[in-house]
Model the fold of this input.
Amino acid sequence: MVAVLIPDIMINYVSDFIVPILISSWSIFFFVIICAVYSVGQYFILRFVSENSREIRAKDRYFNMIHLIVTVAQYSLVAIMIFIVLEILITSKYHTILLTAITGVTGFLTVGILCLCAQRFFSWYRTNKNSVVVLLYASSFALFAFGLAFISVNEFLLMSEKEPIRTSQSEVTFPSDYFEPGSFLANTFDTYQYTYTIAFVILMAGTALLLHHYSKKIGRIKFWLVISLPILYKIITSLENFGLITLESDTESFYYWLITSLSTSAGGILIGIAFWTVAKTIRPDSIVKRYLIIAAFGFVLHFISNNLTLTAASYPPFGVATLIPLPLSAYMIFLGVYCTAISISQDYQLRESIKKVATQDSNLLSSIGTAHMQQEILRTVDRFKDVLQEQEKELEQKTGIEANMKEEDIKSYLEEVLQEVGKTKNQHRETYWGNNNSS
Done:
């Protein structure tokens, strides 16, 4: 599906340069193909999200409500898109109010979802003020919602000024290219640009801390590479917005916006790769793996959809299929990131309990470095399983999310704890003998 959305956003970005090509029969045929592929793809994405969120939705009415709203909205948006396609094929025109409806629903519904995301993360942070990750994500979601609210109002007003019927003879222009400095529309557009950039930086900081839990599994260099590439993307796409470069000709503008459309898509894909890379290091039956995959697809869709506008209102309106998944992507990010963060937090609490038991077990500690260490570890695992299950049930009742730690995880973590204790003992011995020799 992403393979057809990328050409869709590329054409949307340069639609004012290629009007003669847009109104051709082949272009209209390609537009219909894009809409059809997205409609089918959305069905499978919604089914995937529904199947993998069944447990959390059964225990959390909050998520069940959002899931229902998003599902109804997404199918309604696809219905509007299909109506636009039929209008173009049958009457060779379409009503601008349909684009206005899509713009309004996607923008304001996404703002609502992001506000709910921020509220849930801030609420969680109040009960756990040591979690910097939760605070960063809460702040980024709040800023994304704030900026998107401004740009949604902006685009809604711009769409209302367009002529009511769009045909192959209609002029194709992006109103943002002609904003008067200091005007209301210019100020709202600038506010969006600045808040979006700040929110993106905070989001990447939170993502780095969240996924750092798994950095050893994928390698430090690879981890920081997949985290830093999206930041590089953001720098590239911000050059013209903040006046860092000046486009002096139509040719320069055409190629700049074409490249920007590709870098916008690449940015979402790169963030998705960061989550996907971590997901591949986790065992297949892990619930965290499913949440990370949902978040990965959510980020890919969100950063492709969120940097697009229908205000040019071209004929046919390329970009419609790419804008529609914006609310769905916000919901997927919320579901994936929130559940991953809670699962990792639960995992950390369980590991702390294991560490406490291990460091108080004299038989286990005395076995460090001996042939009996593996036997003592297995004995401790068997003894701790019942206690761990009770803690997992308690955490699951509080959060609605199933704990992720298995027997092999307990064994692996016990080995890590014993290695740390063994290193500490060796360091103390070296310090002791060093002090004695010097005296």
Q: What stands out?
A: The CA atoms of residues 52 and 290 lie 7 Å apart.
